User: Which sequence fits this backbone?
């Protein structure tokens, strides 16, 4: 309209927000040079701007103040996927550096129920690497219900790792229950991982019979896992089935059978089977069999 007064000039909200974020990022860069304590980084880890929170995770990873592990575990539950991804990458990078304290363990266990599969996978990877005995039950409860195949596979492997570090003679009942469920998973790779884990956790009679049946599974990965499981089964159940598995068309299955038979060598039938395997067409199978005799 002619003669109208011009409107006052105001920066757009987005521009103002970007300007604020840029200033906060510059503050973080300066702060990083001072080796800040966690308390000094907290305001940036909870900043409204995801870019600032992501950079705070980077500074935390670089400076490693006390409490870094639990703070990164907390960042796994951030609302922004880029912040969660940064926290996941940092936890994997620092896994050999972070002290396996209760706060870190609890934060990782809580992240196992997050909807983001990247978060769940990172949490269980770090838990497995920390070999937290107390985490076994948490992992066991999460294993059968996770919707991601990759996460269920890694959970099965994590249960084996955690159980292997236990000083008790048997794993928690929850671990065996979870692995039993995973051996009937609709995905072949999950079943294979679960059977493979039983080779470390232990394969008591009900599961041993199931493993023998699984040696006829259409997927070679499952057959190899089942052969591995029988390494910890009773000799009477394991050896006849493993001897038969030495004629499997897949070399990886035959190799797994030979390796399991090495756990039963006091039995004459196991030694006879291994002698047969020294004539296998696959060089690795022959080598493992010869080494066991």
Assistant:
């Amino acid at each position: 309209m002619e003669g109208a007064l011009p409107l006052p000039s105001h920066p757009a909200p987005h521009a103002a927000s970007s300007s604020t974020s840029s200033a906060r990022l510059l503050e973080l860069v300066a702060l990083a040079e001072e080796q800040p304590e966690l308390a000094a980084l907290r305001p940036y880890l909870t900043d409204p701007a995801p870019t600032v929170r992501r950079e705070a995770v980077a500074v935390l990873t670089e400076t490693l103040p006390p409490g870094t592990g639990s703070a990164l575990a907390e960042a796994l539950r951030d609302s922004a996927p880029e912040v969660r991804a940064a926290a996941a990458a940092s936890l994997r990078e620092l896994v050999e550096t972070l002290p396996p304290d209760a706060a870190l363990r609890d934060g990782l266990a809580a992240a196992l129920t997050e909807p983001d599969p990247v978060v769940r996978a990172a949490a269980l990877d770090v838990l497995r690497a920390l070999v937290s005995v107390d985490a076994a039950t948490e992992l066991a409860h999460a294993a059968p219900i996770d919707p991601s195949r990759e996460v269920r596979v890694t959970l099965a492997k994590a249960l084996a790792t955690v159980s292997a570090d236990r000083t008790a003679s048997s794993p928690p009942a929850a671990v065996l229950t979870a692995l039993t469920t995973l051996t009937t998973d609709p995905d072949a790779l999950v079943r294979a991982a679960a059977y493979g884990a039983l080779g470390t956790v232990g394969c008591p009679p009900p599961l041993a019979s199931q493993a023998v049946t699984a040696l006829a599974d259409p997927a070679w990965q499952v057959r190899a896992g089942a052969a591995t499981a029988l390494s910890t089964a009773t000799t009477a159940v394991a050896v006849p089935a493993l001897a038969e598995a030495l004629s499997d068309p897949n070399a990886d299955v035959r190799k797994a059978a030979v390796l399991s038979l090495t756990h039963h060598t006091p039995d004459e039938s196991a030694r006879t089977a291994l002698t047969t395997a020294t004539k296998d067409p696959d060089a690795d199978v022959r080598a493992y069999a010869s080494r066991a005799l």
Summary: DSSP finds 17 helices and no strands in the chain. Residues 87 and 117 are 13 Å apart (CA to CA).
